Amino acid sequence: MKLTGAQMVWESLVREGVDTVFGISGGAVIHLYDALPDYPIRHVLMRHEQAAAHAADGYARASGKVGVCLATSGPGATNLVTGIATAMMDSSPIVAITGQVATPFIGKDAFQEVDITGITQPITKHNYLVTDIAELPQALREAFYLARTGRPGPVLVDIAKDVQAARGEFVYPDEPSLPGYRPTVAGNPRQIAQAAALINAAQQPVILAGRGVILAGAEQSLRELAERAGIPVATTLLGIGTLPETHPLSLGMAGMHGEAYTNLAIQEADLLIAIGMRFDDRVTGAVHRFAPKAKIIHIDIDPAEIGKNVPVDLPIVGDAEQVLRSLLPSIEPAAHPAWLQRIQEWRAQSAERDILSQPHQALVPQFVVRTLWEATRGQALMVSDVGQNQMWEAQYYLHDRPRGLISSGGLGTMGFALPAAIGAQLAQPEAMVWVTVGDGGFQMNIQELATVVQERLPLKIAILNNGFLGMVRQWQEMFFGRRYSGTPLLGPDFVKVAEAYGIPGLRVSQPEEVAPAIAEAMAQPGPALIDFRIAQEENVYPMVEPGAALSEMIRRPNGKDHAPAEVGAREEAG
Amino acid sequence: MRHTLVVLMEDKPGVLSRVAGLFRRRNFNIESLTVGHSETPGISRMTVVVSGDDAMVEQVSKQLYKLIHVTKVVDVTNEPAVFRELALVKVHVPANSRGEIMQLVDIFRAKAVDVGTDSLMIEITGQEDKIDSLIALLRPFGIKEMVRTGRVAMVRGLAGSNGRSGTKRET
User: Fold this and answer.
1) For this structure, is A111 an active site residue?
2) Residues of B at the A interface, defined by Cβ within 8 angstroms
3) In what side-by-side order are the strands of the sheet with A314-317?
4) Distance (Å, rounded) from C-alpha A253 to C-alpha A209?
5) How far is A126 from chain B (nearest CA, A)?
6) Nearest CA in chain B to A306
7) Distance between CA atoms of residues A130 and A98, nearest Å
């Protein structure tokens, strides 16, 4: 079959099961756009290429499929960079297709030329520059294969404009040709037997589950392991929901803003079973004092993660689902009542200190998120941005739904939530998708409100508006003597902004208005936006100061409603 | 400690820049890096000397494996292997010193590959310390120009570092 390069791209995408792409047109992809209407693929026109990459990422995270974004050469391609890096850090499978100037112009500093394969080398799993039409189908086949297999990640395919216009014989290869790429998926049986022995002998075990569990589809196996062996489950930010958070064995999120009982459980554990996570510094705190009493089993598909940050006692390289399936038959039933009781006591102390257990008149963000959780019965697909809003969402929304939280964990990309939610809503049209976002991050991709309207997406947006770049302000309050340098933030009237885009907007400044406003937003058949004017200087607690161990948390000052933190009010717990 | 890694990789455009970029961004310390064809068409062979502790070198090796074009990485540091480097040294040679320098060349089993009226180009092959010694002895005469290739390595006997026998890809 003779096709143009542009037709080959769409033919290949159809064969890879792609039904939606996110992009922006331009001179170097004009052939691709010309061929697009002939194929059964929905093109979502974004308002910025960064948002196109985030939308593809959100689509991938919500669907488990490969997300695809499309941009022209030069500035179109460089605008993708933050989105690609975000996907790389969170192992999200996306394929980014960029147009490149025509082959004779490459290297001549031609109009809108940029070396995007060079630029994205450190932030892609792999990338391709295609200057010969004969290589195009193979490059696309490999790009999708690499994106979705092993440890998933972004792959970029840069296609010269003349290649898109050229005609050639199209044969889509059955197999990729990648002799240097052989991911290990099955765990080593001897190491799995050793892991079973450690688990069966443990008195105070804790599981620490990350996004690898979701990527492997191992939620059910994780639950079986936890329930059979009586092991409480803490998660990373991106592992939230791997065990339903209302499950009695769920400890919620660990790390810098993990609950005290969660972090204490890790620090007191005698066995830590880390699954599909990579010991990020936001999870471990001071790394040499992390889980000091525990033997560590580390299950991960990426061998380079083993021993990278934390020395482990027993590594198992493999796919989380395959490893857990092999492990489960050797696991003996256990309950660890004394251990769970101890954690329960810490949990009760945390609950007592919780701001929602104390009288508060101000509109605090924790209350907003908790009310949102109640209103959506824990079943919303939440897409959070980065900063304080992200941590409050993680702490106060109990995720029971698998793949129920999408957030930029590794790179911490402000502006991620709105475009990622666009991708997520398209991947799950029936889902109730809520965006939680700060007033700072929202303004970083606010232009995508137009995409929401153009695509008729029923997204609901909750802005936790405190007039600050709040997380940095919190650090300034705690560690820099309240010098609020570069953090007070003047925002627009978000209700009017929403209305200008044709989206109903609501403003809430009193606690009693929260539930009715959420109900009103949910009653809208289309999108809705709520501007929650929250207490300006509310902090995220607890907090593990950078460089401190997980057990050395700054706790919420007792009995005070929305008071500034007592600087240095550190507490040795445990 | 210094480790010598033999890296086999597909000979694709940009592969050298991928490897170099990896070393830079992961903060690994390269002492030398040489690359050329291997016995298999389409496969290049690189020898990298890195300094660092065992954990660091293990990370280097694992990160190299993550490059899609890299097919094999072997740490030959503790293997019975032949390590060689080649250097070309151009020395300033007044006529009255030529004999003295030629004696050194003989002792080191080096070769004079170009003789000029007042200069001599010497080719020497061997382990780095041997080359270092000759250079130290030549320096007083005045080294005008020098180039060293960096280390290449090959394991002795049938068990090779090319993945044909003996060693197995680690996971």
Assistant:
1) yes
2) 9-10, 13-14, 17-18, 21, 25, 55, 58-59, 62-63, 65-71, 169-171
3) A250-253, A233-235, A205-209, A271-275, A295-300, A314-317
4) 9
5) 7
6) B59
7) 10
How far is residue A506's CA from residue A468's CA, in Å, rounded to a whole number?
20
Q: DSSP state, B139?
A: G
Q: Residue A319: how many CA atoms within 13 Å on its side-chain side?
A: 18
* pLDDT greater than 80 at residue A47: yes
* Residue B168 pLDDT: 38
Please give the CATH number for the structural domain made up of A2-169: 3.40.50.970
Q: Which CATH number does the domain housing residue B69 bear?
A: 3.30.70.260
Query: What mean pLDDT, rounded, does chain A reach?
Result: 95
Sign of CA dihedral A424, A324, A256, A562: positive
Q: Assign domain A363-533 to a CATH class.
A: alpha beta
Task: Give the distance from residue B81's alpha carbon to the nearest chain A alpha carbon, in angstroms.
Answer: 24
In degrees to the nearest 10, what's the CA dihedral of A398, A404, A405, A410?
A: 120
Q: Rg of the Cα trace of chain A? A: 24
- State the helix-helix crossing angle for A81-89 and A49-63, rounded to 10 degrees: 30
Nearest to A56 by CA among A305, A314, A423, A316: A423
The residue range of the domain holding B7 is: 2-80
B28 vs B24: CA distance, rounded Å: 6
Q: Do residues B88 and B76 share a domain? A: no
> Of the candidates A126, A179, A306, which has its C-beta nearest B71's C-beta?
A179
The pLDDT of residue A358 is 85
pLDDT at position A140 over 80: yes
Q: Please give the pLDDT value at position B29.
A: 87
The alpha carbon of residue A451 and the mean position of all alpha carbons in its chain are separated, in whole angstroms, by 21
Diameter over CA atoms, chain A = 74
What 3-state class would DSSP assign to B80? coil
Tokens of A515: 């539930």
- B158: in domain: no
Nearest to B70 among A122, A180, A306 (CB): A180
Asked whether residue A563 carries a pLDDT value surpassing 90, the answer given is no
Q: Which amino acid is at B19?
A: V
Q: Name the domain count of chain B.
A: 2
**Residue A117: closest CA among B147, B31, B15:** B15
| Fold adopted by A189-346 | Rossmann fold (3.40.50)
Q: Provide the pLDDT for residue B163.
A: 54
pTM: 0.94
Give the DSSP letter of residue A386.
S
Rounded to whole angstroms, the Cα distance separating A277 from A544 reads 19
User: Which three-class secondary structure state does DSSP give residue A473?
Assistant: helix
What does A388-427 look like in DSSP terms, one character per residue? HHHHHHHHHS---STT-EE---SS--TT-HHHHHHHHHHH
ipTM of the complex: 0.88
